[in-house]
Amino acid sequence: MSEYNPRRTRNLFDPGSDRPFSLSRSKVELFVNCPRCFYLDRRLGVAPPPGPPFNLNSAVDALLKKEFDVYRRAGKPHPLMERAGVDAIPCDRPELDDWRNNFRGVRHHHAPTHFTLSGAIDDLWIDGDGDLIVVDYKATSKSGQLGIDSPWQRAYKRQMEFYQWLLRRNACGVSATGYFIYCNGLRDRDSFNQRLEFEVAVIPYAGDDGWVEATLGAARECLEQPVPPPSSPDCEQCRYNDTVHLLFADSPD
Questions:
Q1: What is the mean predicted confidence (pLDDT) over 223-241?
Q2: By three-state DSSP, how is residue 173 classified?
Q3: Is 94 buried (19+), middle (13-18) or exposed (0-12) by CB count in 10 A?
């Protein structure tokens, strides 16, 4: 069931306001997945229930950042980059701490929609031409070859493309190719021994941020409507809400 939090009402979209409205990358993704859930969340303050925290994934992210920071300070490529044939080094810019911070991130005021967009990147590399390379860390544990071609992984690609778009709007030269550092926890070891081992793949991805502008315009138009959009047939949350509504509507007083 959707989660209502009255304390969030101060952050809701007001179609009559002339103030910029803050929208994170994850909320843009919510709109892509389900305009109705997006409207309920950003206009009415009824958020989808939060998912479980991915604490092991967060630990992998934190350790990778520490590891890449060692090579960043040295101005040298990480061995993973060398093995993958990436001609670049970890980027060392004064903005990087803010850009990696979940509460700040890379920010841009989008004049056509009056949205202030933001997104926190995992890492940046810089190539020989001075272009920034967006890097995203992913962690999982599964059998088979690591890749980013499953239908559900389209969200990963949009995530990277949105970061590329944000950086370009900050007057940065950005490489079309980004990289996923994909860490796969191995299950075929004889024992745990208080240690989880990973295989790591460096997967290139040529992003295309051409979808962002139209999506932002559609999200603004959605929020300006007096009523929410219809339920999305592919949205599990909408199907759940509709089922609960029918059950209560059919039940006796």
A1: 92
A2: coil
A3: exposed
Structure tokens that stand for 185 in this block:
């926890």
- Write the CB contacts of 147 (distance below 8 Å, at least 6 apart in sequence): 153, 203
Burial (Cβ within 10 Å: 0-12, 13-18, ≥19) of residue 90: buried
Q: Quick one: pLDDT at residue 65?
A: 97
- CA dihedral (226, 222, 238, 51) positive or negative: negative
The total of other beta-carbon atoms located within 10 Å of residue 208's CB is 13
- The domain spans of the chain are 77-211
Q: For residue 164, what are the CA distances in angstroms to 98, 99, 208, 219?
A: 16, 12, 9, 19
> For the whole prediction, is pTM greater than 0.85?
yes
Phi, psi angle pair for 21, to nearest 5°: -110, 125
